[in-house]
Specification:
By secondary structure, the chain is an alpha/beta fold. It has 9 helices and 11 strands. The strands form 2 sheets. It has a 9-stranded mixed sheet, with helices on both faces. It has a two-stranded antiparallel sheet with strand order 1-2.
């Protein structure tokens, strides 16, 4: 079901506009826009990053390994795979991977910046896309699975986003979430990416529970590579000066292959039931429960 962002009426998603107040989304750059005023200056990210990401994600060990972990979690923990919404879909790299792996009847990507949607639509032609503000999701009990992958850390009002996700999920629907972890890993990389925080497990779990979620599984990842990540971040702090975000992506094919194999080994341990306490990122699988 859709939920009107003006009067809060709930109505079938097939209807183009709200039957109560007649509000309806406008088109921005060819996409339905639910927050058109933010489509080109939404904050929390920079439009120029999309073209950089689109050229760097494919084949990079971290993005590839994260996609494989997400796909495994959907297969293991998400019984209802009829509909999937990705919040902050960026250039569509995750959606593309999930579309190849699963036969979702409905695959929807959302992004606050309309520019990102152009990259995503080219990458995943079988999906639909909308422009929206994650703090105001225009759906109610609509999706079996919602994913937010390295999105919450860009948004000051992360708890509001989680409450909106709860509303948009079907009863007992599943949320898949990845966030950067550990304040002590903060570096110019976070500043460049417009992060407002890195999470602790305790903070992440508390916010999820407060929003009405039961935590099914939670683990760090990028754990076996944490010493290398710490060294890289410390080096960046000491360097100062001009920061080049592409430095972390400039890996030789051999090094990229080695790091990918390490991440694959780590994923095998996670799949076997190992939950890592520390790591560059945290991966949480949570289920919507009814609030008391």
């Amino acid at each position: 079901m859709k939920q009107c962002l003006v009067c809060s009426a709930v109505f079938p998603r097939e209807q183009p506009g709200c039957p109560s107040c007649h509000a309806r989304p406008v088109l921005v750059d060819g996409f339905e826009a639910y927050a058109p005023e933010l489509a080109r200056e939404g904050g929390g990210f920079k439009e120029s990053h999309f073209s950089e990401l689109a050229s760097l994600e494919e084949g990079h060990f971290w993005f590839e390994a994260r996609n494989e972990l997400i796909a495994w979690a959907i297969e293991k923990y998400c019984a209802d795979r009829e509909s999937f919404l990705e919040i902050g879909c960026g250039t569509g790299f995750v959606l593309s991977g999930m579309a190849k792996r699963f036969s979702f009847a409905r695959l929807l990507g959302s992004e606050i910046f309309s520019q990102g949607l152009h990259f995503a639509a080219q990458r995943v032609p079988q999906a639909s896309f909308i422009q929206m503000d994650a703090r105001k999701i225009p759906f109610s009990e609509e999706f079996g699975v919602i994913g937010a992958f390295d999105v919450l850390e860009h948004i000051q009002e992360d708890e509001a986003v989680l409450r909106q996700v709860h509303q948009a999920l079907k009863p007992e629907g599943m949320l898949l979430l990845t966030v950067p972890q550990h304040d002590w890993l903060w570096s110019p990389s976070d500043d460049y990416a417009c992060h407002v925080r890195r999470y602790s497990a305790r903070d992440c779990h508390a916010k999820l529970r407060s929003a009405g979620f039961h935590i099914v599984r939670s683990t760090s990842f990028v754990s076996l590579l944490l010493p290398l990540m710490m060294a890289s971040r410390l080096k960046k702090r000491k360097q100062g000066g001009e920061f080049d975000v592409t430095d972390e992506f400039k890996l030789s094919p051999k090094l990229n292959s080695i790091l990918y194999r390490v991440m694959k080994g780590e994923a095998s341990l996670i799949k076997a039931g190992v939950d890592f306490a520390a790591g560059g990122s945290r991966f949480v699988i949570a289920q919507r429960i009814e609030k008391q």
